[in-house]
UniProtKB/TrEMBL annotation:
SUPFAM superfamilies: Mitochondrial carrier
Entry's localization field: Mitochondrion outer membrane
Alphabetical UniProt keywords: Membrane, Mitochondrion, Mitochondrion outer membrane, Repeat, Transmembrane, Transmembrane helix, Transport
Pfam family, one: Mito_carr
Protein name per its UniProtKB record: Mitochondrial carrier homolog 2-like
Main localization, broad class: mitochondrion
Membrane topology: Multi-pass membrane protein
Entry GO CC: mitochondrial outer membrane
InterPro entries given in the database record: MCP_dom_sf (IPR023395), MCP_transmembrane (IPR018108)
Family designation: Belongs to the mitochondrial carrier (TC 2.A.29) family.
Gene for this chain: LOC112464221
Solcar repeats: 134-222
Amino acid sequence: MRPEKRRSRNIPAKSKETEILWSDIAGRILINAISYPVEYAKVLIQIGHEPIPPKPTVTLFGKPALKLPNAFTYIKHIKSVDGFIGCYRGLVPKVCSYTVSTIACDKTLEYLQPNGAAEQNEDEDDEDESVRRKKCINEIVMDVISRTVAIVVSHPLEVISLRMMAQFVGGETKYSSLFGSFLEIYRENGILGYYAGLIPRVIGNAAVIVLTGISTYAINNYVLQEPAMKPYTASTMKFVATTVTYPFLVVSHCMAVNDCGLVAGLPPHMPIYKNWLHCWSHLSAHNQLKRGSSLLWRYYTGPQMLLNGKLIPIMGDHFYQPSS
């Protein structure tokens, strides 16, 4: 029994870290695969595709509104058009994107972290205020850098996945294989096509990290007195920060498919944007920056009119094109 224990103690720390990394990647891939149809429906909503007409309803406050189908009804529609396999269109590049992103982020953090950083974290409560503040800032900076590197490296795969999903709108098959999609993007948009929508994605992710880090530090050090509650602060603040920065994700996804040769990225479904700021201002003017943020209770917020006491969506709008 003793030799076995010695062998387990002699396992290099790096090999253990590698095992943990790959087990984490495998677990996340499984979760992403199971929940992918929901993600698929959400992306189609984000780029403005609403194939099912809204129905008149009232809000909780009794105000007339137009109710759009929830994500699960949307998934049923996708399945009725493309079948069960069709609900997983774009999954392969999405999984590849997540894997590349995770490895790049982990390796960048490993390179940036000073030696012995893990051992220093044990006596955080006894450290001076200025030391804790400096450590918090350093962690935020390292997280932003590592996450940005991960996004830049994996973004071409993300663009391929988004365009594969966007093909549902026009029933195209231009983006069918991984290698073929790389060539198709180059033919349509050149090198810059691989990084369509990159800037708002990077800004949104960096904002989440900064907001989460600063708010978590402030709350844990100046607000919360109960140690048992402090571990939950980071996850709560990340949820809040993700909600606040959600419009960056919508703009990024729209720019990834805009003017790429697909029906989803061309008029009348979507205007051709000059840049991501033009996209932001246009979506903001039409109250569309938060579309897809709610998957269960969705309301049509585009142009509408009151006719015989009922709300009716105005046809011909860029954001609502009912299926024929």
